Amino acid sequence: MKRVLYFTDKEEGSGESAIDLLFGRYLRNHCHVDIVRFSRDKRGESIKNEEGILVPVSARRDPLRFIDPEPYDRIIVRNRFDLFFRLRRGVGKTFKGKIGFQLTFPHSYRRLHQAEKEGRALWRKKIEYGIRRRFEEYNLRSSDFFLPISEEMVREFYPKLVTPVFPLPMGIDPEELPQGREGVSRKDELRCVYIGTVDPLRSFDRFLRALVPLKELPWSLDVFTAQKEELKRALPSGLEGKVRTRDVIPREALISRMAQEYDLGIFVLPEHRLYRVASPTKVMDYYQAGIPALMSEIPECRRLFDEQSGLFASFEEERLREEFLRALNLPKNHLQEMGKRGREILLRYRNYRIMAKELYDFLEKI
């Protein structure tokens, strides 16, 4: 296997660690990889450069107008079942390589879950999900290989699938390990950080309510999110001075900042099947920065970490409050050691350099 064509679901300028690092850097140590993103440039032409191939967004459903698949040995489509279906039909019997699908989140099921939570258009969403589910299963049966985000995703959503499977979770970059601050912070305050979305499905307001009885204790929480209005609506009275909204900054800069300024990362969400299959990106970012995380009891977190490298709480207010209070009472140097242990675990089991070699071996054998 010499050449891989990787269709992302991203537009020009958007990044994600697995795309940029796993495929864009480390897999390229083993083979040629062209990464396809979509451009809103009105010229209506494809552009190829060192980063990959930009295809007009108007061709999202039919990119083969701009790309010849024949030179490639493997084609991977990320998250776009409609694009996979058209590509599969488009290459027909002439393509001698293999084409597979990568799924990073159960996006179609998310719509049904949202309808169930909100109590709106439930029957219509159930019908839509049933149709999408059959379409997804048809595509996965016709694919040459499947790259789910976790083993749990296959067990939960596609238990009868016989297509060759290689789980592809999130990881960390072994070449991007910022140094933490020297020694232990002189501040008594526990500085916490949360990065990511605060949409209602994640019920972040439940975690914030759990902190209200602790508002007089020395802690602060910085939330790096683009959803500032949602955070304002979720913030309970009494926490206005404790929880601060921060502007989203580039990932590398954020990881460096977390290493220098924060003691604990927050990753809490409902233990629903929608999230049980996840590979938590933000947890990887916290430990890449060398800080431990307060985490929900989802399989991926429990598989990787233990009580010596992280803190765990089920998603009830009392348990969230108890575990946060425990973190508050731990010595700062103990938290730093937990962060170091967690980073060592990820360097061993979620190292993008190692994962790229394992992915290459898998693709080579298909």
Residue ranges: pLDDT <50 for 5 or more in a row?
none
CATH homologous superfamily identity of the largest domain: Glycogen Phosphorylase B
How many domains is the backbone divided into?
2
Total beta-strand segments:
13
CATH architecture of the largest domain, by name, is: 3-Layer(aba) Sandwich
* Apparent shape: globular
The helix count comes to 14
Q: Would you mind describing this structure in some detail?
A:
The protein is an alpha/beta fold and 366 residues long. The chain has two domains: 3-171 and 351-365, Rossmann fold (3-Layer(aba) Sandwich), CATH 3.40.50.2000; 190-349, Rossmann fold (3-Layer(aba) Sandwich), CATH 3.40.50. Helices cover 41% and strands 18% of the residues. It has 14 helices and 13 strands. The chain has helices spanning 17-26, 81-91, 107-118, 122-142, 151-157, 204-211, 228-234, 251-261, 273-276, 281-288, 299-304, 317-329, 332-349, 352-365; strands spanning 3-11, 32-39, 47-49, 52-56, 74-78, 98-103, 145-148, 190-195, 219-224, 243-246, 264-267, 293-295, 311-312. A seven-stranded mixed sheet has the order 3-4-2-1-5-6-7, with helices on both faces. Strands 10-9-8-11-12-13 form a six-stranded parallel sheet, sandwiched between helices. Strand 12, helix 11 (299-304) and strand 13 form a beta-alpha-beta unit. The termini are close together. The mean pLDDT is 92.
